Amino acid sequence: MKKNKPKKIMDRIWKTLFKFVLFLFCVTLVQVVALKFINPPFTPNVAWEWAESIIKKQPEKRPEYKFKKIENISPHLRRAVIAAEDQRFLSHNGFDLSEIKNALKTLIRKKKLRGASTISMQTARSVFLLSSRSLLRKIAEMYYTVLIELFWDKERILEIYLNTVDWGTNITGAEAASQKYFSKSARHLTPAQAALMTAILPNPHKWSVRRPTPYLKTRQMQIMRDMHLMPLL
Question: Are 127 and 39 in contact (CB under 8 A)?
């Protein structure tokens, strides 16, 4: 009887763990399937910033977030984002293996870490997860990327990306960013404005649309050259 006791304890642990994993899978599956049809009312980061502004009683620092359907976002911005962030967006299944290989080569040769995130990965991160640099968050990001690629089409992924990506301090999504930087709807952005907005995306808290550096202007021109070659979703 005593010999069987440890085995029974381990069996209970494994059963509990299995139930917990199954529960998490069901919850995340419902999340992803629901957002195929329902626009997210907020993102985890928006909710966090909102809560912070209420606790600190700083209403002027509450995040700006306005969801717009993809047809109400400038086609120039749609093309610019694909050109700058993920040119193989339509051909990969969430992970760009070529970019991952290039990132690993850069890390080995130059000891420098460069991004290899696709639009799908960034969407998974901004919609379902809080900002952090932990290994656990990266694993969760990859997991959600697989799910959204399975259940959403590319147009829906791009639509949610454009509406949930961080575009600066307390600015989430294309509409809020367009209103903030150009005092106009994202629907009416010009090619130059769309390219400049996209140019700051790798580091929207460091770079400024209103005060573009020479590097940003060069990046803007490169995006404008590439965006005409990109598909329109």
Answer: no
Strands of the chain, DSSP E: 64-65, 171-172
What are the beta bridge partners of residue 171? 64
Instruction: Give me the chain's average pLDDT, please.
Output: 90
Nearest to 184 by CA among 209, 205, 202, 164: 209
The CA distances from residue 60 to 57, 131, 169, 170, 179, in Å, are 9, 22, 12, 10, 16
**What pLDDT score was predicted for residue 113?**
56
* Contact between residue 187 and residue 72 where contact means Cβ atoms under 8 Å apart: yes
Q: What phi, psi does 115 have (nearest 5°)?
A: -70, 150
Per-residue pLDDT tens for 185-216?
A: 999 999 999 999 999 999 999 999 999 999 99
